[in-house]
Amino acid sequence: MVLYDYFRDKPILSIMKKILLYLLTFALIIPAESVFSQRRGQSPAKTPIDTKLFNNLKFRNIGPAFMSGRISDLAIDPTNENIWYVAVSSGGVWKTINAGTTFTPVFDDQSVFATGCVTIDPNNPHTI
Fold it and tell me: What confidence tens digit (pLDDT) does each residue in 26-53 have?
C-alpha cells in the first residue's frame, strides 16, 4: 500500500516525466559503460579470415529453400524417414531421398504452379 499512497497524491504527468527521465538516463549509461570499459589504446583483436577455407565451396541449387523459401506442407514417408515430399507455395512439389540434403522436383509436368498441401496415403506410401 505504500506504493499506492505515493502515487495517489501525485499528478500522473509528473510521474510519467520521472519515469521517462530514469529510462533515458539508464539508456545513456549502458552504452557509455561499454565504451569506457575498453582499455585505452587497445582495439578488440581481429582474427583474419583465411580465404582458402572457402575455395572449394560452390553455389548449388538445394531445392525448395533456394527457389522460394515458403514451405506450405511437408510429408515424410512412414516406411523411410529419409524420404520427404515438400509442397512449396511458389514451386510445386519436391522430393528428397536423403533427409533434405538434396531435392528433385516431382511436379514440374503439372499445369499448376503453387501447391498448398502434400499427403502420403497411409495405406500405400507410394501414393502421394
Answer: 666 665 555 555 555 556 667 778 888 8
| Distance (Å) of CA 96 to CA 45, 61, 85, 91 | 43, 13, 7, 15
| 127 touches 115 (CB < 8 A) | no
Sign of CA dihedral 106, 111, 113, 118: negative
Cβ proximity of 64 and 94 under 8 Å: yes
User: What's the whole-model pTM score?
Assistant: 0.47
Q: Any idea where the domains of the chain sit in the sequence?
A: 2-37
Q: Three cell numbers at 67?
A: 527457389
